[in-house]
Amino acid sequence: MSSTSDQTRLAKTFTQLRKSKSKALVSFITVGDPTLDHTLECLQGLVEGGVDILELGIPFSDPEAEGPSIQAANERALKGGATLKDVLDQVKLFRKINSDTPIVLMGYLNSIIAMPDFEKRAFEAGVDGLIMVNLPPEEGEKIAQPLAAQSIDLIYLLAPTTTKERSKEIVEVASGFLYYVSLKGITGADHFDSVEVTRKVKELKELTDLPICVGFGIKDGETAKKIAPYADGIVVGSAFVNLVAKGGSPSEISASLKEKASELRVAIDSTKVS
Asked: CA 174, CA 44: separation in Å to the nearest integer?
């Protein structure tokens, strides 16, 4: 399965990146961390620093795949009262100043099914894709069709432990792009094996034409440079979340996120495109 439409923001972004022989820089932060008043400026800073796709975490009380940094971000956001409705409201605010940068929400199924007409409300807010951490592909159909009807891509995670047979099943139902989790375990871990990641990405590219983005364990320009030649995008989460955790005014945190994004952008663009 490919993108829900060739005209989606995600499809356009990857097409433009291919034409310019570049790779996507995908950032992750949790909405409402440290407060909802920070989120919009943080998103602006990331885009100004060179981020191509914004991945926004939906605050959740038990984020099972996350390491300490992102768990703490969820706790800060929930302490401030952030909800899924607030996430969509922040997307709406961002869309008033930016109609081009794709936004992908990442969260857990429990949050989504609790909101009536989520797919319609997400589309109206300006959401482009959805990653459900705890949604297996055989159960994804119940939300895949309503999402596709609103031109929202359902993006799946693949891990080092995912078999080739399982990968084939996933690429049949995925859209937008594939998110390859480069490490066994939780986000923010350190044991990054670029040789193994590169081998797995090549294997996946034999199965699908969907763009493949790699995340988990990519913290700086050095690790980004090792993967950029082989993947279609690099996902960076904990490195950005750790900057948010240092605190500061919205403009101060935004500036630090912009600087980090710029460092990663330069590193990615310095590599030879495959």
From this structure: 29
**3-state SS, residue 47:** helix
At 191, is the pLDDT very low, low, confident or very high (cuts 50, 70, 90)? low
Q: How many CB atoms lie within 10 A of CB 90?
A: 21
| Residues 170 and 204: beta-carbon distance below 8 Å | no
- Cβ atoms of 28 and 241 closer than 8 Å: yes
The CATH number given to 9-268 is 3.20.20.70
Q: Please tell me whether the overall predicted TM-score, pTM, comes out greater than 0.85 for this model.
A: yes
Phi-psi region of 6 (alpha: psi -120 to 50; beta: other; left: phi over 0): alpha
Q: Which residues pair with 56 in a beta bridge?
A: 29, 105
Sign of CA dihedral 123, 59, 160, 168: negative
Encoding tokens for residue 164?
Answer: 């080739």
Instruction: State how far the Cα of 152 lies from the Cα of 208, in Å rounded to an integer.
Output: 19
Tokens of 15: 């097409």
- What is the residue extent of each domain of the chain? 9-268
C-alpha atoms less than 13 angstroms from C-alpha of 5 in its C-beta half-sphere: 11
Task: Find the mean pLDDT for residues 215-227.
Answer: 89
Contact 70, 85 (CB under 8 A): no
Question: What whole-number distance in Å separates Cα of residue 259 and Cα of residue 216?
Answer: 20
